[in-house]
Amino acid sequence: MVKRKKVLMFGWEFPPEISGGLGVATFGLCQALAHDADVKMIIPKNVPNFKIENIELVGLNSIKPEDIEVLFGTEPTPKIPILPSSFKQTIGPYSSVLASEFLDQTYYEYYNAAIQPFEIEELYGGDVISKVIEFEKIAVAYCVKDDFDILHAHDWLTFLPAMRLKMITGKPLVIHIHSTEFDRTGVESNNWVFELERRAMEMADCIIPVSNYTGDICVQKYGANPQKIKTVHNGIIPITHKVDAKRRKGNLVVYFGRVTQQKGPDYFVEAAKKVLDYLPDTKFVMAGAGDLLETMILKTASIGIGDKFYFTNFLNKDKLNELLSKADLYCMPSKSEPFGLSALEAAQFGIPVIISHTSGVAEVLPGAIKVDFDDVDKLAAYMIAALNFSGLRQAVVNADNTSLSQITWEKCAGEVMQVYESLFNATNNIC
Amino acid sequence: MPSICFYFQVHQPYRLKEYSYFDIGSDHQYFDDLKNLEVLKKVSEKCYLPTNKLMLELIKEHKGKFKISYSISGIALEQFEAWQPDVLQSFKDLAATGCVEFIAETYYHSLAYIFSKEEFKKQVEQHRNLIKKHFNQEPKVFRNTELQYNNELAKFIEDLGYDAIICEGVDRLLNGRSPNFIYKAPNAHKIKSLLKNYKLSDDIAFRFSDQNWSEFPLSAETYATWVHSVAGMGETINLFMDYETFGEHQWEHSGIFEFLRYMPTYVLAHKDFSFKTVSETAAAYPVRDVYDAHHLTSWADTERDLSAWLGNPMQDEAIAKIYQLEQQVYASGDVTFIDSWKKMLTSDHFYYMCTKYWADGDVHKYFSPYDSPYDAYIYFMNAMSDLSIQLKSIEKPLNKGVGKETAPKKTVVKAVPAKKVAGKKAVAKSK
Fold first, then answer.
1. What is the complex's ipTM, to 2 decimals?
2. pTM here?
């Protein structure tokens, strides 16, 4: 019998807080992977009583001050010092700082500061880069003596410790790309995060983007080696119950996700204005937080449709489910959407979804209505058609249901296992 | 003494333009004249003109021994008359040879038989008049749109006075028997059913240029030997196909025209073989067995059923709603409304809405002018909404019981824009 492989995985948002976010994807994958491999998941903070079956979950916030002292009191020795020649120049004593090579001066001091017990309140708030660096320092010290076969890191937030551990141990590194800085900030992204992503793609033995769309970005924007790329589309956990919704009169169109330029909220608002000219008995919900939220509120007010819009800010899963069960239509006019799990979550509620061509989820929902994100007229026309014509609604929902039945985390985990196997085979051939 | 019965289908729909929801109420031109003209021109150049020329040469060359039959939809003839009179003339030249027979069908290439027997009869009559006008022939054989056929239809057509009806030779109904004999429906008295030999038909229509086909490239000589092998095991080989096979589906460089040029010579080289038109075929052979079709069959896709036009929620809704307008449309007495409505009954509109092959819908996609089945449905529904609104606007005076004859007509004059499409003129002329 083949020995179960030990996967050392790095995640950020755990337990999952944000619908459709990185945490949901990481959670779904590692839960399914646990059937085939031993997964140890390192995360910034864990909450009491949050456990995943068969997964060893370590929140760095639970490491006590005395343990930190022990960890950093001894010089860790690499277990397997054989490294691919391309990385030789970067091998050095542990005290050399990988991140500092391309670290902004602002963080340099921070990087060299004394290690403190890891405390993190807001995962995405405040100075995220500082948190990312501190996460690396403690995670590496904590894991370096561990016995593992492969490193698997999810998004830039967790790349640093995985890269560092690859340099020390020579174990294969898999990076999972749920989104890129290019998606988040647009064309002009050339910052520290972008550079970190680029370095990680360079160093990784395999890059797993969540869609071919994202894989293309890795190649075209980051210069990643196309041969290292193996797309694995996300899965989704089937919903077990539907909220008993009270139907209201009129139509309800939903946008949910971060209210940032990446997600195209302005196109949603502009299309809504056109829809309202023809279907005045329609309400729109923008569920989510983000830097454009206030702008959107002002925009709806200034074009005179404020009374037709509800801004809910961030919604937890229960509230979101309640909203989706009342909704008639979901729209995701994202400029650049690596995957778009939220579209699958909406489709699970049996409502038609309109998504942009520039989204990964379009690859797994062939029956969804697709539109160019900035084609406001077409988006509005599709919204109207989906609200007016039951034949279209039913056809989209039927097609999406067929697709949904094949979109599982088990399938996703199976494909990730194949990636692991191919890396082990490659390593064995070398030895 | 077996004979070959060639029947070619000639049809071009009036494609709807990308009629937006925002056009409803202001734009009453539903059809994409530019696109329809462009397609007609392209297919005329690639197929109709060169193939008709070749057919005429073959008929002359073989001195009456090469005979063929056509079914040309009324709206295809309308478009030829308006935009490509040389094509119409070339069909008239073929008719004048006495070796070409024209088949009856629904004027609008519609599914009227299923949805309105009244409308069906009107369209068959309208088509019959047009054939008589252009070709001075009274059709004796009928074919329903896309070879849709069942026992009930055979009887219905018999009652209209036809000698024969054309249908697909469906394996599950033939149940091991050969399509190369004359059959009849169990409930029919004298009408004969001509069954398509789909194997030998599709060798030309679908497989001819398929490089993965074991018989590729197919020569006229080889094909003639296949035809000859039927000797002693059949009386008529019914080769039914779209006329666009020549030069459009099978491109010129595939050698399809050379194949057609030499095939009759090779077939006639066997002294027992001859070519017959559809009514000659029906007259020449007795009924050999019963062909029992309870459910409607067709010549489309592998299913040979109606699932290319009906069955998904969009198709079902669109077709049900367009036929619901029948009474109102005729009650309006307005030629423009009647003409638009009838053009919307054409089966192609529902074919474009087919979602059977999300994954591999190549055939449907190839024939669709739209980006997706959703678009096809939306444009149709929008145009139908406009027609419906126009009909309602002239209905009101009627309901009030004011001068039933004059009141609506006044409104009609206002509702009909001054400039008209060529198609409408053609209808007026044909009456």
1. 0.77
2. 0.83
